[in-house]
């Protein structure tokens, strides 16, 4: 059975997709720490990130780095946060988000009811930043 992430990648359920390439996809989480909170996910359904082949893990981390560059440019945060947890969906993924404080590094403080218009605006802002950084070939429309 496909994971919810695979269903998003296939367009079976909606998602705010930011980045797409042959090995990875990045899209917004539905419960962000901050607007701009992005998940970077391998297309291949692998439950635990340590089980990814090294070349795929390198690629996924490379995409996370590029998306983080976009987050830095778009939102000018104190830091870009990163977490790999993997308990919520059995499909390896990296959380990256524009962070203002260490206290954001907990899932308990996630916004369970984010504003749709603010999410759309943040997605547009991040996509534009990634295009300006030269990654336009991989930025979703």
Q: List the strand order in the largest sheet.
A: 1-2-3-5-4
What is the total number of structural domains?
A: 1
CATH topology, by name, is HIT family, subunit A
Overall average residue pLDDT: 97
Query: Per DSSP, what share of the residues sits in E-state strands of 2 or more residues?
Result: 15-25%
Per CATH, the class reads Alpha Beta
CATH level-4 homologous superfamily: HIT-like
Number of helices: 3
Secondary structure: number of strands: 5
Organism: Rothia endophytica
Motif (Histidine triad motif): 91-95
Protein name: HIT family protein
Domain HIT: 4-107
Which tags fit this structure?
141 residues, alpha+beta, HIT family, subunit A, 5-stranded antiparallel beta sheet, globular
Q: What would you say about this model in short?
A:
It comes from Rothia endophytica. This protein has three helices and five strands, in the order αβββαββα. Helix content is 32%, strand content 18%.
């Amino acid at each position: 059975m496909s994971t919810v992430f695979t269903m998003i990648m296939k367009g079976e359920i909606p998602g705010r997709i930011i980045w797409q390439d042959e090995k990875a996809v990045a899209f917004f989480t539905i419960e962000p720490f901050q607007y701009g909170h992005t998940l970077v996910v391998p297309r291949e359904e692998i439950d635990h990130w340590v089980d990814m082949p090294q070349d795929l893990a390198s690629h996924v981390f490379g995409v996370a780095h590029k998306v983080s560059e976009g987050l830095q440019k778009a939102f000018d945060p104190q830091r870009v946060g990163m977490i790999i947890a993997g308990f919520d969906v059995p499909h390896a993924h990296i959380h990256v988000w524009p962070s203002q404080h260490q206290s954001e590094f907990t899932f308990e403080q996630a916004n369970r009811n984010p504003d749709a218009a603010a999410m759309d605006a943040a997605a547009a802002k991040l996509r534009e930043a990634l295009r300006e950084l030269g990654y336009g070939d991989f930025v979703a429309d």
